[in-house]
Design goal:
With about 400 residues, the chain is an all-alpha fold. It contains 14 helices and no strands.
């Protein structure tokens, strides 16, 4: 049926990935981006962003703990997922995720957090009482030496772990783009730029999330916001956002210039089923608007209060745009037939295992975990100099 739009053969209706698979790369992107921001303070010695260093590490850990849950809920038999560790399939990028996840969680992020907070943990284990004392005693792992030499060793080892963690963060999220980009049968996904775009968009979302969390938590604690810190974060966010947007536009221009047999079908989708999510949400609302806001804040001498509001709006819109990008990649790549003749739609349920309510719960769950983590390990710079009972 050539030229007939809206028809799909029965064997071509294959929309298997739901909103949970959209949420998975979005959450892992927040993890990678938050860790990259933390590395600016430790590896690249950007002193201005140091107030967010510990918060960025705890944010990455909170979201990393939730990252596998969308995949677990999507699986028909999640209880079998442990088999990837018992029978590793080295030629499968999806199967190797379990090993990348464990490496990044246990060998990088947890080790770096423990090294960075070790002195505080030892002090808390000696000054607190009750269950807190036992908790901090266990967290010391029997290492209560906080001499200057021991702390210097912690700093050197932590620097090395962070150095290893930067490419690990790229690997954690870049392999998601690698999976999509390597599917040659789907022209929407098959692009060598896909892993690179995923990495830079992850940096955008993670940096924006930490910036918003820092501003919100500082306000809740009734402390003054370090504008030098926020201005510097916004500057890096602006530059990385430009690179991310340029890569996406480069991919788009290449597709338009190439104009292969799939171009007509993809062009139809962009102007119909994906018009709102891609043109409006991703490009206009989630990319161009925050870029303009960040540009104005960088070049104009605006009042501090105005800059705070601009950063809050720009960061929020950036997160919306990155989530829309994930939606357009995952869902959009499944809406057209393999023969490029017809199209289908995605209808998201409300209260099913892969429905809207579950997706919302998984999105806010890391924030509750982060609240617990900052209660146990206060990441605020002034906590290093405050008395321990007050910090707790």
């Amino acid at each position: 049926m050539p030229g007939v739009e809206g028809f799909m053969y029965p064997n071509e209706v294959s929309l298997y990935w739901s909103v949970l698979i959209v949420l998975y790369p979005f959450i892992t992107g927040l993890v990678a981006g938050a860790f990259i921001l933390a590395s600016l303070a430790r590896i690249f010695r950007v002193e201005a962003v140091k107030p967010t260093y510990r918060l960025a590490l705890l944010t990455a850990l909170a979201f990393l703990m939730v990252a596998p849950l969308p995949l677990q809920l999507h699986l028909g038999h999640p209880e079998r997922s442990y088999e990837m560790y018992l029978t590793p399939h080295r030629s499968s990028a999806m199967a190797m995720f379990g090993f990348v996840y464990l490496w990044y969680l246990m060998a990088v992020l947890v080790v770096e957090i423990w090294l960075d907070f070790r002195a505080d943990i030892v002090a808390l284990s000696q000054s607190t009482t009750g269950w807190r004392r036992w908790l901090y005693k266990a967290m010391t792992l029997g290492s209560d030496n906080v001499s200057p030499r021991a702390l210097a060793i912690d700093e050197r080892v932590g620097w090395l772990v962070t150095l290893i963690g930067v490419p690990s963060a790229f690997l954690l999220h870049g392999y998601v783009g690698f999976i999509f980009g390597s599917i040659k049968a789907n022209p929407w996904w098959s692009s060598p730029l896909m892993p690179v775009v995923f990495i830079f968009s992850a940096m955008v979302s993670g940096i924006a999330a930490v910036m918003l969390l820092y501003m919100a938590t500082t306000r809740l604690r009734r402390k003054p916001i370090d504008m030098r810190c926020v201005d510097t974060i916004a500057m890096y966010l602006f530059y990385i956002f430009i690179i991310d947007f340029s890569l996406e536009m480069l991919d788009l221009i290449h597709r338009i210039y190439e104009a292969d047999e799939s171009f007509r079908s993809l062009d139809f989708m962009v102007h119909t089923r994906l018009y709102f999510s891609q043109i409006v949400l991703q490009i206009l609302v989630g990319t161009l608007t925050p870029l303009v806001l960040l540009f104005l804040a960088q070049v104009m001498k605006l009042h501090e209060v105005v800059r705070k509001r601009i950063y809050a709006v720009a960061g929020s819109l950036a997160l919306v745009g990155i989530f829309a990008m994930r939606w357009n990649v995952v869902i959009g790549g499944q809406l057209f037939s393999k023969s490029f003749l017809g199209y289908t739609t995605y209808k998201m349920a409300l209260a099913t295992r892969e429905g809207l309510l579950v997706a919302i719960a998984l999105t806010i769950l890391p924030l509750f975990i982060l609240a617990v983590l900052v209660r146990i390990l206060p990441p605020w710079p002034e906590a290093e100099h405050a008395s321990i009972p007050e910090a707790v």
